[in-house]
Amino acid sequence: MKAEDSELLTRVTGNAPMGRLMRDNFWVPAVLAETLVAGGKPHRLELIGNPYVVFRGHSGRTGCFDEACPHRGASLSLGRNEDDALRCIYHGWKFNVDGEMVACPTEPGDEEAFCKKVRIRHHPTREAGGIVWVWLGDGEPKPFPEFEFNDLPPSQRVSVRQKLAYNWLQGLEGTMDSAHVMVLHEEWIGALAQGKGGAQTAAKKTAPRYEIDDQPYGFRYAAHRELDAEQTYTRVNVFVAPWMGFICPGDTPDGDRTLIMTVPCNDVSNLHFMVRYNPFKELTSYYFTRFSDPNDWPPHPPGDVEDAWGQDRELMKRGGVTGFTNITTEDFAVGLSMGPIVDRTKEHLNAGDMAVVRVRRLLLAAVKACAQGERDPLVRTEAIDYAAVRPVADRLRAGADWRALR
Predict the structure, then answer these.
(1) Which residues make beta-bridge pairs with 78?
(2) Residue 291: Cβ within 10 Å count
(3) Among 8, 76, 136, 358, which lies 20 to 30 A Cα-Cα from 88?
(4) Same-domain pairing of 368 and 300
(5) Where among 73, 100, 134 does a domain terminate?
(6) How confident is the model at residue 203 (pLDDT cuts 50, 70, 90)?
(7) What is the pLDDT of residue 182?
(8) Is 144 part of any domain?
(9) Beta carbons within 10 angstroms of residue 124's beta carbon
(10) 57 & 160 share domain
(11) CA torsion, points 379, 382, 385, 387, in degrees to nearest 10?
(12) Is-contact 113 89, C-beta < 8 A?
């Protein structure tokens, strides 16, 4: 990859074109809904290079502002949560969830008139899928993406989040990289595949045959592994621009699915959201219910660069494949090992990287078009049927069209 193209894809802060594309065209996952307690503390977070504060008022409504109070710039994350408003602890200026100033105790004149003149930068919010999403662009928000997991009950959906110190694109590329699954996660896939012919065979075949089917939102891509002369085990994952990877279930078409969203905090850190869901029945995977803190799951690698991110070599001597005790922690360790922003000019790619290459090409085309004032297909979100997005896996007979899988 050319260095300038990598810069375009990875940089999001300030007036970077990728940051503008994200803010102006997409609803952004911000915090887990359960993190915001009615009348509780506001939460500070950084999204796409800017600091914000998100809170839940006493009525349950959520609000999102730029972090700095428009008076003297004090952080509203320190603010008092009163009714459905935040009051700055510095001078008592108060703003409701709709961004209206409703009190100014330091104004000696007509307080109500003064309040009408002051505007805080307020960002619309939406709660869905166990996540509070925010609209950071100017003007009216685009229609909210109505994914099939949005309104599932807790028994069919669980959402978690982890913060990671590397660029957002490294996380997204890892999500879309099917080739690594049977290598990096060999130990876990082998255990999950016990007694399941398709997945068990897939665990032994690390070089599937890939096909990609472009869609308005991104693409679907299939990884085919021949079971025998009559059957193929096909896994269809989905990329939804700009940061979503939908991962299919195992052998059974009605199994649990996983959505991974890698949302940039800034150029060198990201929020890793995971939504485990099943549109047909209660969740069957216990992995996503073992956490004590949903904002610290899956587990972060236990060390840093000085001790190989906490890799346990003694565990490897006893048969552990990677030296890490959690499947997603393996992904995190690899992402961290690449550094804050990996140098893509030194890569040597192969056919197993087809989906990674397609992600880059689509995002590059979109960011270059938007920088020229053009509307790339990926940002025409109002015309996309997000409810139809679904990753799938199944055994197919020879000659069957995988694109018909739904």
Answers:
(1) none
(2) 14
(3) 136
(4) yes
(5) 134
(6) very low
(7) 81
(8) no
(9) 18
(10) no
(11) 100
(12) no
- Asked, for residue 14, whether it belongs to a domain, the answer is no
Q: Is the pLDDT of residue 176 over 70?
A: yes
In DSSP notation, 43-82 reads: EEEEETTEEEEEEE-TTS-EEEEESB-TTT--BGGG-EEE
Give dist(CA 10, CA 265) in Å, integer: 12
- Global model pTM greater than 0.90: yes
> Does a cis peptide bond (omega within 30 degrees of 0) precede residue 154?
no
Residues 312, 355: one domain? yes
In which band, very low, low, confident or very high, does the pLDDT at 28 lie, cut at 50, 70 and 90?
A: very high
Cα dihedral: 178, 182, 188, 193 (round 10): 100
Letter for the amino acid at 75?
A: S
Let me know whether 343 and 314 are in one domain: yes
- Domain assignment present for residue 107? The answer is yes
What CATH number corresponds to the domain at position 259?
3.90.380
Q: Domain range holding 383?
A: 154-404
Kindly report the average pLDDT of the chain as a whole number. Answer: 93
Question: In the chain, what percentage of residues exceed pLDDT 70?
Answer: 96
Token pair of 61 as six digits: 């409504």
Strands 231-240 and 392-397: antiparallel
* Domain match, 254 and 129 both: no
Question: pLDDT tens digits for 298-319?
Answer: 999 999 999 999 999 999 999 9
Quickly list H helices, 296-342.
313-317, 327-337
pLDDT tens profile 335-362: 999 999 999 999 999 998 999 999 999 9
Considering the domain architecture, whether residues 265 and 212 belong to the same structural domain is answered as yes
Phi-psi label, residue 207: left if phi above 0, alpha if psi -120 to 50, beta otherwise: beta
H-helix or E-strand containing 365?
A: helix 354-371
Query: Which tokens sit at 181?
Result: 């699954």
The verdict on residue 33 lying in a domain is yes
Judged against a pLDDT cut of 50, whether residue 195 lies above it is answered with: no
Domain match, 125 and 165 both: no
pLDDT (0 to 100) of residue 284: 87
Q: State how many domains the chain has.
A: 2
Q: Are 84 and 164 found together in one domain? A: no
